[in-house]
Structure formats: C-alpha cells, structure tokens
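Case study B.
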Amino acid sequence: MQGNDPITDVLEDLLKLDDILACMIARQNMISVIPDTNKFDPQVMKVWDIIKNTMDSVFGVIQQYSMAGLHEMEFELQDYETLFYIFPDTENALVAIIPALSNKGLIEVELENTRRQIIALLDNEEQIKTGEKEHLTVEDSSTSSSDAYGINVLQ
Amino acid sequence: MPMNNQEFKACVGTTRLWDSFDAGKEVARKAISDLDELPSFVLLLSTIHYEKNGGFEEFLNGVWDVLPEGTPLVGGTVAGFMNNDGCYTRGATAIAVSYQNMDVAIGIGHNTKRNPKKAAKCLSNSILKSHETSSHQNPFMFSILPGGTIPQLFGFGRKKVMKTGLVSKLSLFLLDQSIKLVQLGPGREEEVFDELGKNLKDWYILGGSSMDNLVQSRCYQFLGKEVHTTDIVGIGIKSDLNYEIITEYGLKKTGIKMNITKKGLRNCAICKIDGKPATKEFLKRINWPEDYLDDRLYTKTFYYPLGYEYEGILRPQIIGAFLGDNIACGYSIKTDDIEILSASGESLLTAMKKASEEITNFNPKMVMGVACATQLETLGSSIFRAYDKLEDIFKEIPFVVGFYAGEESYSPKTPPKQLYDSFNLSCIY
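Model:
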C-alpha cells in the first residue's frame, strides 16, 4: 500500500481498475475521502461539475432512504455511469464513475469488495474507539460521531 | 500406515496483490500453506489484470518461486472466481491438493481453434500414456481451453454489434479466416470435448474456457511454467477416490421458438430464421425494437440466451455478436429448432444454490466449479448472495469456482457437451 490512511489506500486500489474513472466516499454536499484526483481519468474531470450536481441530488434520495435499507443507486449521464454503494445506516456512499458501456457486473463485484473492506476498517476503528472509551472514563454517550476519516458513523 | 488411510488435503489461496510476481508468490504460498505433504497438483486461476502488471510469465515465476519443483500445475485466466475467501473479479486463486493415493499427469493439446480434434487427441493421448502404469482405477480430468474471442475485423474494430455495411456482410467470411489465420473467433470447444469424450470414455472431465474481463479479446492457459494462448491444458488424475459433476441452469423456456433455415460459420452462426434475416427476426420475436441494436444489446441478451435440446440435454447458447443479418453464437448449433430462454437474477442464484446442495450430498473432500462469466456480469454485486449461500453450504470444504467463457463437461453417464449460462460443480469424494 501507499502509506496513505487505510481507506484512501483501498480507494486507490479500486482506482487501478481500468474502468474505474473516479471514486470517492461522499455524502450530500461533502466528499469525505477522495484519492489523489490526478489519478482520475481526465475525461471525467471535463464533466465533473454536472456529475457532481447530479450526485448531490441523488444523495438527497440516499439521505431519505438509507435508514430504510437503501443499498445501491446509480445514474447514467452522457457517456458515464455513476454508482453509489451506500454504507449501511449512514448517508455515506462509495461513489464510482465508470464508462456507460463497461462490463458493469464485473466492476460491481469489486465495488462490493471495496465497500466491505471499508466497512471492516470502520468497524475496526469503532472497536478501537470503544476500547479506548472503556479504558478511560466514559463521560457521555453521543448518538453520532465522526471517525478519523471524516465519515459520519451513526451509533 | 496403510496407503488407503493417507489423508486427503486441499487448501485454497487467494491474492489481491497487483504486481504479477508478488501475486504469484502469494497465491502459491497460501495454497500450499496448510498441506502436510508436497502438493499432488495445483489448479491456478487468475483474472486478466496481471497481463498489464508484469505479465503472466512473471506471475508464474512468482508461483514457482514458492511451489516445489515438479508440482503438476494447470490454470488459466477467468473473468472472476469464488472460493472460501470471497468472490472477486480481480486477483488470483489456487487450490492445492495433497494425497498419496493419486497419480497425476498434466498435458496439452495445441491450436484448439485451428484443429480441435487433433488438440484433443494430443492431450488425451499424453494423459493416457502418463497413466499407463497407474495402479489407481478412477480417472478425472480438469481442463482449461482457449475461449471464444472477438477479432478485430481487419481494421474495423472489435465490435459485438455491427448493423449494416460491407464489413457486416463479409463478417462471417472474415471471422472464418480469422479462426484459421490467427485463431481468434469461436472457441470450437464442443469439437474438442466431442473428441475427448471418445478418447477418455471412462473419465469424468470438467472444462472451462479461459477468457479476459468479458472484452473477449484474449485468454491465457497455464501449464507448469508455461503460458499459452491457443491451447487446451489438462490435469488428469487417477486415484482411489470418486468424482461427480453436477450441472444446473438458471434458465427458463419462454416458449418463443424459431426455425433456423440457414446457418453459417460451421453452424455457429444463425443466418436466417424462417427464411428471413436472423437479426431482424430475432428482435421481432423477442419484441425488441430495432433501436435496441447497439453495443448495449449484447449484454441484454445475457438474460435471453438461445437454447435447444440435443441428446436429452439442454444446450444454452449465448449470443456472441450481431454481425449484420447474422447472429454469431458460441458453438455449433446441432438442431434447426431453437428456443429463446430467459434468465433472472433469482433463477441464477437458485441454480447455484441447488448445485451446491446436490454436490454436498456426496460428502466432498473438495469442490472445483466452472460457471459462466455472463452469470457474474448479470448478477453483479448480487453474486455475493450466492457466495453467502455457498459459503454456508460448503463450510470447511475447500472450493474454487471460476467464471469462464464457456463450460464443458463429460462423464461416463452423460455425453460430451459445451454449455453457456450453466453452473457446474465437480467434486472429489
């Protein structure tokens, strides 16, 4: 791995796949974790503004339905498809932009692996936090917290 | 200790590393890590990604950096794989087996697309010769063939849908030339297996057609330390154990039947249906507008393969390409009547579960599977639903299922066959 934080490493690993033109972890109006954008396919950067605006609208839906079990979403815009793999019970999603004519099914398998890897990292992070909390005196029990990667984790 | 009490052991390894050499080394190390004895054989499957990250020679160099010299090894490239560790469309997996009451031989048959019969004879003869002195009775072979590929039609690009024009009219001729000259085009695997079935009558044989990431431009086969691109490789074992092959489809008959009145390309292409140009007639029968005729049509047809029954067995055909008026299929169509079949995510998952449950009835020591890559493409991330079920059914049983460009099998109980859209599991028990 490249020595970034572990989630960035996982995203950069995903980005090595030819058909992943760009990827990130995002929520509405906020990109939480993003790999080095120099590694994004330049063709995506040309249409980034319109994709970003559409993404924000989709995140409105994710925000509304993620707690109801919304798992995946996608939209096709121009020659690109944007896939959202939502982290359970959060408003965050792994977002990947792929060519519209790519073999999406094969890519989806690796997106799911990436989502699972990130969830495992977050779980691990939570366990460490819980351990630290137990070790120290627990002063309050907040309903949500932001982890080391800026991803909002609902408790 | 009596020989027949020797412990059978199988171990599965996975790598997700990108560098070819490192990945080869890691997958081999993991696959043999739990074996107490030297491996009797290794089956190695990889996705295409190492082609651009060091190459497959380097990948095998990594494998042989770890694997004991002389270990029988065959393998090839697949679109993805499932094993005890997960489900992946990037990476490599290997299953290593050690068992004393087992004789193992590896073999090769060259140029399957140019001369499938000769390739099959060459492979079967070498396997039979190697086993001449074997004291064990029960034979099984796992083979990997070159899968069908879509050639660049003489500078006109690699297209799965060609609407009209001179190239589409000439396409079948060009495709035929392409098979002969550069061995790109339909895999002709059914011709290979017809011959294997004749030469290895008592054998259980499971085969998979190697491929890339569904682009279908290239494929690789591994034999020992060698990398091949146009040859069938096989690992033939004789032991005191038993074998079984289970095949399931997630397909339903739609009742939409078509009469083929003209075929081409060694019966691999449908030129006319009821006397009318095949492509238009197919779209009409399935009730799809002609506007559908673009590169996306190819993936839509994954849900609607063609099929026919021959020798009592349903033979599904994936549509390989629409070349003008012609529909190119993966292997030769042996009847004139075909039916449009339908697949759904649910039916594919059910088939995978059913095959897995059936094979566990044999109390297997290990499971090796061959599934259709179109199922992986069709299911996408839903493949994990199948994986979760398989993991639950197999529990501690080592298993590797590759997703190939075609599935082939033969057993003393069933005729040789090439299939698409099928889920096949073999076991040693």
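Confidence is low (pLDDT under 50) at residues 1-5 of chain B. The remaining cases will be described in the next quarterly update.
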